[in-house]
Amino acid sequence: MTDEPLLRVRSISKFYGNRIGCNDISFDLWPGEVLAVVGESGSGKTTLLNCLSTRLLPTSGTVSYRMRYGAFHDLYRMSEAERRFLMRTDWGFVHQNPSDGLRMTVSAGANVGERLMAVGQRHYGDIRASATDWLGRVEISEDRIDDQPRAFSGGMRQRLQIARNLVTGPRLVFMDEPTGGLDVSVQARLLDLLRGLVHELGLSAIVVTHDLAVARLLSHRMIVMKDGHVVESGLTDRVLDDPQAPYTQLLVSSILQV
Amino acid sequence: MNAHTDNIAQYNFAYLDEQTKRMIRRAILKAIAIPGYQVPFASREMPMPYGWGTGGVQVTASVIGTDDVLKVIDQGADDTTNAVSIRAFFQKVANVDVTTHTADATIIQTRHRIPEEPLKAGQVLVYQVPIPEPLRFLEPRETETRKMHALEEYGLMHVKLYEDIAQHGHIATTFAYPVKVEGRYVMDPSPTPKFDNPKMHMSKALQLFGAGREKRIYAVPPYTRVESLDFEDHPFEIQTFDEPCALCGGTNVYLDEVVLDDRGGRMFVCSDTDNCEARRASGHRGHLSGEEAATI
């Protein structure tokens, strides 16, 4: 691998008028690394994620991304065409609500194939073969390929959304509460699947979650946010087993034990 | 000004006032300069309901002159309500000559067909367009579709064709079949049958598209590449018909199915009535024309 990070985040701040979205956040994300952003509701996790994925323009700060050919590009100085191209090839974005990330009125196969067609594939047979392959990898049976996502259960939709994002072989995936609306057994399966895929494909990922268990299972490193600030960051196991900041201690101790 | 003075003093020539025509002509010029690009224009209320071709009428009114000869067709026919009304409208407000013969017309306003007879240089074909945005049903946000046109992101158009093949085994889109113009903009050729798509390619005539309700004008200048989208393993094909026209015996023309009775009787006749009549006048006969082939 390389000794350079994939994503360099420097002093990202986002203000909504006088209110703080997130303030002065810096970190590096390395290839193959999964970073969890945890914190309570309203702590600025999603604002940060949206800033990083260029869905939102931060008030100040820079984010540079190492392109496939090795050079770092400042995301906010790219042309919109480049940025959108990056978003549909080298990146993925998994929404909390699958209907935000899927086209609900076209079949599962077309949902997975859309990115392929967007980068210029024009062979129906090949597109369908990739779609079938990817549905298999996210444990959706092949005979559902022509069904619309609205005929799918919540867990299946979320897995379909993941397949749709991974089909172009992205290097970086943003996930916003990927297990949000799912019941625990489905959550467990999805986490298993995600962990397998991330490992197998060598993906880097930034996962926003309020669920410390998700962070524990998926991530190598985590940052804890409160009121738009980072209160603690470090290796996931270290932060969860030996929390230093008072807020992290509170967070860890408030997990329900069954 | 060229207000017509004889018996229509209450209207300006061709109904629209000169400033409006000027504005529309500017939009048309811009549309011709950027083939396939949808130019917004300030569409006016016309004395007919939306859906009757208010866009096409405004385009025609802006390009028509006193020496033009107008032909109006509705699904290929010169004698249906829409065609008759619009033709009468221009006779009244512009006092121009009208015709039903494709070859004699200088301007042909059409609702969803291209005449079978090849168009000549100097002719103008004006389309009435209900929905100019080919991406509309896949991406309802207009801000987003404009961006997609600007950045040439047309993968979504193939998603629709993919869906067709997945559901029907072949590309089942038969009308408003998306085309790429001069290798750049994807365009909705208005709801013409895809049978007519090849006629747009390298056409000698100027093709203008007006969408009145949607306030958009776009154009295909003469000798412009117009390619129908498809997949490598599912190439574009036009409709074919099993039998010739029942009246003129024509083949390789677009046919309408006409139900004859309530016992399954039906006939297939030319959708282009002018072409059918011309063929019959020159002695061609189909099996239902009621008379033997003339021996001209």
Q: Summed up, what is this model?
A:
The complex is a heterodimer of chains A (258) and B (296). With 258 residues, chain A is of the alpha/beta class.
What does this structure look like?
The complex is a heterodimer of chains A (258) and B (296). With 258 residues, chain A is of the alpha/beta class. Chain A folds into 2 domains: 1-90 and 178-258, 3-Layer(aba) Sandwich (Rossmann fold); 102-169. Chain A has helices at 45-52, 80-89, 98-101, 108-118, 124-137, 154-166, 184-201, 212-218, 236-241, 246-253, and strands at residues 7-16, 19-29, 34-39, 60-66, 72-74, 91-94, 172-176, 204-209, 221-226, 229-235. In chain A, the strands form 2 sheets. In chain A, strands 6-7-8-3-9-10 form a 6-stranded mixed beta sheet, sandwiched between helices. Chain A has a 4-stranded antiparallel beta sheet with strand order 2-1-4-5, with helices on one face. Chain B folds into 2 domains: 16-140 and 173-225, Bacterial phosphonate metabolism protein PhnH (Rossmann fold), CATH 3.40.50; 239-287, no CATH class. In chain B, the strands form 3 sheets. A 7-stranded mixed beta sheet of chain B has the order 1-9-8-5-4-2-3. In chain B, a hairpin with a 4-residue loop joins β8 (206-211) and β9. Chain B is globular, with a radius of gyration of 20 Å. Classes of the chains: A alpha/beta (258), B alpha/beta (296). At the A-B interface, α2, α4 and α5 of A face α5 of B. Chain B: Pfam families: PhnJ (PF06007). Chain B: This is Alpha-D-ribose 1-methylphosphonate 5-phosphate C-P lyase. Chain B: One of its GO terms (molecular function) is 4 iron, 4 sulfur cluster binding. Chain B: Catalyzes the breakage of the C-P bond in alpha-D-ribose 1-methylphosphonate 5-phosphate (PRPn) forming alpha-D-ribose.
